[in-house]
User: Which sequence fits this backbone?
């Protein structure tokens, strides 16, 4: 991907497709597990992954992981915590996109404080 306009377009399209897919998955989560919409969502996810692989990119989600400043993610609610708080990423708002081990787009996430003993 040498054309920067092409790369920017793939990044923007990928993020928007990821958001749409996530919304779709939340809706179908309320349906019975044998609903055909579930396989449609899985297929769409595989297609996004295939398109990104062809462009030498991957989507990274840190959802559920303990937060570390070296992760390629920006916390949109970082002002709610102290520097010494242990945090877990509870929700990705925008995925991190990487290409050949390099960050193409820093993701955006919401974190929650990890309670001691949990």
Assistant:
């Amino acid at each position: 991907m040498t054309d920067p306009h092409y790369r920017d377009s793939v990044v923007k399209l990928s993020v928007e497709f990821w958001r749409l897919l996530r919304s779709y998955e939340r809706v179908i989560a309320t349906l019975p597990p044998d609903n055909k919409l579930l396989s449609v969502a899985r297929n769409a996810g595989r297609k996004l992954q295939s398109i990104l692989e062809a462009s030498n990119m991957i989507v990274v989600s840190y959802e559920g992981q303990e937060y570390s400043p070296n992760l390629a993610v920006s916390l949109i609610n970082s002002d709610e915590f102290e520097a010494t708080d242990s945090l877990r990423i509870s929700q990705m708002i925008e995925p991190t996109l990487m290409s050949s081990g390099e960050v193409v787009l820093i993701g955006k996430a919401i974190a929650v404080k990890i309670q001691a003993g949990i």
In short: The chain has one domain: 4-113. Residues 48 and 97 are 12 Å apart (CA to CA). Residues 4-113 form one domain.
